[in-house]
């Protein structure tokens, strides 16, 4: 569902925080890059667990959707 709607609404604003905004297309691109980082650089695999600990900023949805797209458990 994430891929479907980020492609469909790509140019629309997904999140706004502290005057900065990110589109659905940018969110999908950044989340994919984060998922690749988790898997390729950190060596995490499906089912591995890690914590996301960031303030309520634009980085949070990127990290969350990146982890979910890589099927890594956020806990």
List the main descriptive attributes of the protein structure presented here.
two-stranded antiparallel sheet, Rossmann fold, 75 residues, alpha+beta, two-stranded parallel sheet, 3 helices
The total count of strands amounts to 4
Shape, per Cα inertia axes = globular
> Class in CATH?
Alpha Beta
Question: Which structural class matches the secondary elements?
Answer: alpha+beta
Number of domains: 1
Largest sheet, if any? 2 strands, antiparallel
Overview of this structure, please?
This protein is of the alpha+beta class. It has a single domain, classed as Rossmann fold. It is built from 3 helices and 4 strands, in the order αββαβαβ. The chain has helices at 2-8, 24-41, 59-69, and strands at 13-17, 20-23, 49-50, 73-74. The strands form 2 sheets. Strands 1-2 form a two-stranded antiparallel ribbon. A two-stranded parallel ribbon has the order 3-4. Strand 1 (13-17) and strand 2 form a beta hairpin. Helix 2 (24-41) packs across helix 3 (59-69).
């Amino acid at each position: 569902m994430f891929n479907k709607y980020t492609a469909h609404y790509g140019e629309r604003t997904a999140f706004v925080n502290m005057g900065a905004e990110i589109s659905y297309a940018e969110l999908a691109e950044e989340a994919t890059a984060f998922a690749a980082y988790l898997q390729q650089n950190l060596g995490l695999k499906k089912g591995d667990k890690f914590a996301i600990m960031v303030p309520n900023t634009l980085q949070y949805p990127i990290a969350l959707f990146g982890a979910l797209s890589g099927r890594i458990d956020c806990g």
